């Protein structure tokens, strides 16, 4: 059987991924009518419906559901092939990362990676949005989540643990922090963070009366960490991100008790690109760095 027109297959892949003809049309720069027409051509070629048309969405039929993963994989393989041929020309590694990981861990160490890989330039894309490797330009990603993602190679980096931290000056303002209850005498930077109740429960304090405005939000951990360093209050932070500040005495972790989040941090990239040299180089470097940090 000859392949159907590539344009129809591309439209099907986008529509299956979005579950919506309108969104597929927006991605491909087409009209919705053109998308519907291409899907109809493909269904005629296959000899069976690929979508059930519902009032506000489309749903893959059994045959469509079998076909969709293969088409996505095929386009990813094509994308990887073209990207591989481009590597010798541009030599750029694009890393999509969440802000806290970039600010506290990755950026201070990138010089080491570039010394080991002088032919590679590095571009960072920092944001909270989860990178779509099909639609966005990125070679690897750093994500936070509770489980691995289908279609991606996922290397678990570390668990998102948490514990209170504060500046030495703030601790000294109450004569030192000797018991968990002493923290309740100090301003809390983000008292609405659910990590607080979890941590205090671990030390036997239920429903702690936290000092601070429940409306306050600093968002990313690296921003909260800066506020903690400035002595503005007590933060609940992931120790992994603040090892230099703890070792230099800029921050205090008054207790060894650490809470554990379901979330972990992951290095991810498409399965079809696992053997691309620049991705392999970054993966090996990062896992080596983390191995030294946790040894």
Automatic annotation (TrEMBL):
<dbReference type="InterPro" id="IPR005119">
    <property type="entry name" value="LysR_subst-bd"/>
</dbReference>
<keyword id="KW-0804">Transcription</keyword>
<dbReference type="Pfam" id="PF00126">
    <property type="entry name" value="HTH_1"/>
</dbReference>
<dbReference type="GO" id="GO:0003700">
    <property type="term" value="F:DNA-binding transcription factor activity"/>
</dbReference>
<dbReference type="InterPro" id="IPR058163">
    <property type="entry name" value="LysR-type_TF_proteobact-type"/>
</dbReference>
<protein>
    <submittedName>
        <fullName>LysR family transcriptional regulator</fullName>
    </submittedName>
</protein>
<dbReference type="InterPro" id="IPR036388">
    <property type="entry name" value="WH-like_DNA-bd_sf"/>
</dbReference>
<dbReference type="InterPro" id="IPR000847">
    <property type="entry name" value="LysR_HTH_N"/>
</dbReference>
<dbReference type="Pfam" id="PF03466">
    <property type="entry name" value="LysR_substrate"/>
</dbReference>
<keyword id="KW-0805">Transcription regulation</keyword>
<comment type="similarity">
    <text>Belongs to the LysR transcriptional regulatory family.</text>
</comment>
<dbReference type="InterPro" id="IPR036390">
    <property type="entry name" value="WH_DNA-bd_sf"/>
</dbReference>
<dbReference type="GO" id="GO:0006351">
    <property type="term" value="P:DNA-templated transcription"/>
</dbReference>
<keyword id="KW-0238">DNA-binding</keyword>
<feature type="domain" description="HTH lysR-type">
    <location>
        <begin position="4"/>
        <end position="61"/>
    </location>
</feature>
<dbReference type="GO" id="GO:0043565">
    <property type="term" value="F:sequence-specific DNA binding"/>
</dbReference>
